[in-house]
Write a structure and sequence with these properties.
Length: about 350
Amino acid sequence: MAKIIKLDQHVANLIAAGEVIERPASVVKELVENAIDAEAKNIAITLVDSGITEIVVADDGVGMDPVDARMCVEPHATSKIRDKQDLFRITTLGFRGEALPSIAAVSHFRLKTSTHGNKGILYSLRGGTFVSEAVIACPRGTEISVRNIFFNTPARLQNLQTPAQELSYITDYVSKIALARPDIAFKLTNNDKVLLQTYGNGNLLEAITQIYGLDIAKHMLSFYESVGYFQVSGYVSDLNVSRANKSQITIIVNERVIKNNAITNAILAAYKDRLVIGRYPLVVLAISADPALVDVNVHPAKLEVRFANENELLNLVTHAISFALHNSEMIVEAEERTPFPLPPQ
């Protein structure tokens, strides 16, 4: 008797959910990225109990018609790529078609969407199975509600951290994506309390002010430099501002928030001998590169990327930030040397 069988799609979705959806913050990330890909200009993230009870992400993007709305929760269904060549020039945040079916497989999932802001469609799923659909009044855009995450995977539910810790993961992600997209207005609410709000006017320094406060923004230095296929820009803290960890180093590649140890080390190299050991800067680094030079198809959560000509990029990052810090130190030194004017005789 044959021992190898082909798993049914529900089991396959549960396995995929284990790779893509680790915690409530994973759900928020995937839904927000879909909203950005849908050209939203306003994105509201509403949580109940740090997202453990409910997550609602609403946007004013292009929305979906009923056929696309039903298809979007099918595995590997996507509007982002068409063939294998598209994998080498990815310009959207999502592309695999894994997120929505993975989320739906481990939650009570509800999707409301409309393309024209009059009549829309509502689909409800439980554990990845359709349970109801209805035609409803709905504004243009999409609203997805995810309730009772991991209700059918109790081991994963029990291994979530405290609500405060889970909320911190979500807040960290929303802060970083708001810095990556200062042209989009974000609002994050937990149990009816607004935790973070940006206004989407496209000004990065204003977004930094709204997230970290005016006192921090006053100590941020701008930088810009380009070489070859890479361009780097953003803001870094001067030597009056530092942190005890690296959590406020935000790295953005083609408007995608990523993690990359080599780039982090290139940033810190610019601060070598400037900050004491154990202190780290606050950084918003935006990298623009030809998509053909960036491989985002590395990690299920799309957080890690690989670069062609990486050494060229690392040197550029260190040089650009070092130059900004050097100019700041020169200004401070000049101010210290300028004598105070004598009072008139």
